[in-house]
Amino acid sequence: MKPLSSVFNFEREKRAIEFLMRSGEWFVVSGLRRTGKTTLVRSIAESLDLIPIYVNMWEAPIENLSLDVYFEMLKNAVASVTERRGIRRVLNMIEKISFLGVTVEMKRKARISMTEALKTLCRRNRVVLILDEVQELLKYPEAFRYLAALHDILAPRMSVVFLGSIASLKRVLERHESFPLYGRIGEEIVLKPFDERTSIKMLEAGFDECGVSVSREIIEDAALRLGGFPGWLTHFGRTYVLMRLRGEDTTLDHVIGKMEEEAAAMIYGEVARALYGRRRISSYLRILRYAAEMGEISVSEAARIIGKVPSTAITYLKYLLERGLMKKVDDRYKIADPVIRRVALRPDFEREVKMRAL
Ligand SMILES: Nc1ncnc2c1ncn2[C@@H]1O[C@H](COP(=O)(O)OP(=O)(O)OP(=O)(O)O)[C@@H](O)[C@H]1O
Ligand SMILES: [Mg+2]
User: Fold this and answer.
1) pLDDT on residue 226
2) What does the mean pLDDT of the chain come to?
3) From CA 96, how far away is CA 64, in angstroms rounded?
4) 321: closest CA among 329, 293, 341?
């Protein structure tokens, strides 16, 4: 994990997140993929005198998802934190949670033990529970009922950060007033891609640090083509430096091509994950493909290419917006990330995504 000092930019967000964690708030950090949410939040949590617990829902295998699996992940995260800190009492409590029985009664007991363990841990110091990729939990209202109960028992001794790689996690979480966490989640901090000037500065700082000199022209062009995503800027910088050290051709097209090659498999997986379980995956992929080719797509164009009425097309587009794959500019829809756009242009895009989503 990065020390906070090497997390570039986001000075205002750093101060806000630190304040919210210290005050035991429950809050949301959202933003598109690779805007640096995980890095920022974890680095801050580690830099403070708090007990951070980190759970990433994406670490569960896609073919084996259930609420029990997620609960088990939480249990393991609490166990490893308490073990590392030598807090035996809590570790014992956690280890007693058994999943041998899957009866409702057993689950209830498991939850109570978890609550007790967290309560005991909170007596030591304030706990910051970081739940990453929370959008994956949306299928399980029960998970949120449990969290709401935890809130009422443990806030503000425990702070919870909900991280999600969708446009606005808070809006989705609070869509229904009956939603258990309604009114319990305060702030939402949205990380946006960097503007061009900041991207350039980040690349320059990175190359400086590696002692590699790169022309201003390459840096400016790269900043333009990477859309301001810290994840791509870092990936590009690393690829460039490695290629340079190996004495390879480091023209911009070549380096970006190489980076895209590596990114493609990751992006197929992400798109598949976003579409997993949806009906008519091909229609979503056709919309993405069209937007990649043309630069944008309107509702009527989307309706035409998927052979449906405009109101249905809007549902598809909204879903792609919500999952952060597209963004809306006036009344047109565009692919939010230029690297994803390029990958969507590959001839095997549809096949590769489907292979992973079905
Ligand atoms: N502010 C930053 N300064 C330096 N490097 C950064 C910064 N933000 C992100 N990075 C780097 O970019 C990569 C992606 O960041 P990170 O995983 O935190 O993004 P994310 O928003 O959580 O993405 P995802 O939605 O894919 O989980 C990481 O390798 C990280 O080291
Ligand atoms: Mg992340």
Assistant:
1) 96
2) 92
3) 24
4) 329
Fold of 4-191: Rossmann fold (3.40.50)
Residue partners of 103: CB distance under 8 A and separation at least 6: none
Pocket-testing residue among 34, 207, 259, 323, ligand 1, by greatest number of atoms within 8 A of Cβ: 34
Dist. CA 305 → ligand 1 center (Å): 35
Q: Which of 93, 338, 88 minimizes the C-alpha distance to 236?
A: 338
| Pocket of ligand 1 contains residue 36 by CB under 6 Å | yes
Task: Report CA Rg, the chain.
Answer: 22
Q: State the pLDDT at residue 172.
A: 81
Q: Decide whether any atom of ligand 1 lies within 6 Å of the 34 Cβ.
A: yes
Q: For residue 229, report the phi and psi dihedrals to the nearest 5 degrees.
A: -85, 120
Q: What number does the ligand 1 atom closest to the CA of 191 have? A: 21
Residues with CB under 5 A from ligand 2 (ion): 38
Q: Establish whether residue 165 lines the binding site of ligand 1, counting it when its CB lies within 6 angstroms of any ligand atom.
A: yes
Ligand 2 center from residue 184 Cα (angstroms): 23
Helix (H, G, I), strand (E, B) or coil at 159: strand
Contacts of 208 (CB under 8 A, 6+ apart): none
The C-alpha angle 25, 31, 34, rounded to 5 degrees, equals 120
Select from 3.40.50.2300, 1.10.10.10, 1.10.287.70, 3.40.718.10 the CATH code of 266-357. Answer: 1.10.10.10
Written as one letter, the residue type at 96 is K
pLDDT in tens, 113-150: 999 999 999 999 999 999 999 988 888 888 999 999 99
